[in-house]
C-alpha cells in the first residue's frame, strides 16, 4: 500500500520545526529482527549449511540483496540470490502470519502521531509484500505513505528511502525525525539529513550529532520528537 497526502506543517507554541516522522519497521515498530535470523538459519539448514551466529550482526538491518548475498558467499550455498530471496520472504511471511509482536511503546506512539495529525511514513528495507502484511497489524491509517526496499534504486544504508519518503510527504528531510534500530538504518537517515532517534535492537549504537539513543520506544513521544528540532524564529 502506497499513498500520499498533503503535508501538514507542525509547529508548537515553542516554535518546534517538526514536519514529519519517518519510522523503520523491523526491530523498531515490530519485534521481528530475530524472525529474519531464524528464517535465514532454517533456510540455510535446508540447504545443508549452518550459519555462524556472529554473522547475525553483519546481516541485521540491511537490504535482502546485501544480507542474502553475504550468506551465500559465506556458506558457499548452491543457490542464486533471486531464489534465496523468494525462500526468505516466504519463510518470513509465514512466520509473521503466526505471530507479529509490536515493540513496547509502538502502538501508543503511532496513536499519538495520528491524533495530532503528524505526517508519518513507514520506511523499510523489507520488500513491499512484507510491508503490506505488517501494515495490517500496525494499522495502515497511521501512515500517509510507506517506502519498501524493492521500490527505490538504492535502499539502506543509502539515503534514497528517506529522501523518497520526505519527497512523498512534501517535507524537508532536515525537519524530519527518524526512528531506527540498526546502524544501517541510522546511516541512511543521517545521509538524508534527518534527525535520528536510535532504539538499538541487536547491536549497540552510540549517540552522535543529530542522533539520540534511547532504550525503548516507551521513551519517545511527540514532545520528545519536537525537542529534537531546531527552533524557528
From TrEMBL:
It holds the Pfam family Hydrolase. InterPro entries: HAD-like_sf (IPR036412), HAD-SF_hydro_IA (IPR006439), HAD_sf (IPR023214), PGP-like_dom2 (IPR023198). CDD domains: HAD_BPGM-like. This is HAD family phosphatase.
Amino acid at each position: 500500500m502506497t499513498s500520499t497526502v498533503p503535508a501538514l506543517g507542525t509547529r508548537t507554541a515553542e516554535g518546534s520545526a517538526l514536519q514529519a516522522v519517518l519510522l523503520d519497521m523491523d526491530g523498531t515498530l515490530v519485534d521481528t529482527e530475530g524472525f529474519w535470523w531464524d528464517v535465514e538459519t532454517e533456510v540455510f539448514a535446508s540447504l545443508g549449511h549452518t550459519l555462524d551466529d556472529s554473522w547475525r550482526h553483519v546481516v541485521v538491518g540491511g537490504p535482502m540483496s546485501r544480507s542474502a548475498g553475504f550468506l551465500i558467499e559465506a556458506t558457499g550455498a548452491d543457490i542464486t540470490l533471486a531464489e534465496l530471496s523468494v525462500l526468505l520472504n516466504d519463510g518470513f511471511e509465514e512466520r509473521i502470519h503466526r505471530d507479529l509482536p509490536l515493540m513496547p511503546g509502538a502502538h501508543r506512539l503511532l496513536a499519538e502521531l495520528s491524533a495530532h495529525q503528524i505526517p508519518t511514513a513507514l520506511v523499510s528495507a523489507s520488500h513491499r509484500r512484507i510491508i503490506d502484511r505488517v501494515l495490517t497489524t500496525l494499522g495502515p491509517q497511521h501512515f500517509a505513505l510507506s517506502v519498501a526496499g524493492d521500490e527505490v534504486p538504492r535502499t539502506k544504508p543509502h539515503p534514497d528511502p528517506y529522501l523518497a519518503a520526505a519527497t512523498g510527504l512534501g517535507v524537508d528531510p532536515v525537519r524530519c525525525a527518524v526512528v531506527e534500530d540498526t546502524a544501517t538504518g541510522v546511516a541512511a537517515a543521517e545521509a538524508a539529513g534527518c534527525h535520528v532517534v536510535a532504539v538499538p535492537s541487536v547491536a549497540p549504537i552510540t549517540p552522535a550529532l543529530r542522533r539520540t539513543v534511547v532504550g525503548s520506544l516507551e521513551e519517545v513521544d511527540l514532545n520528545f520528537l519536537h525537542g529534537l528540532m531546531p527552533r524557528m524564529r
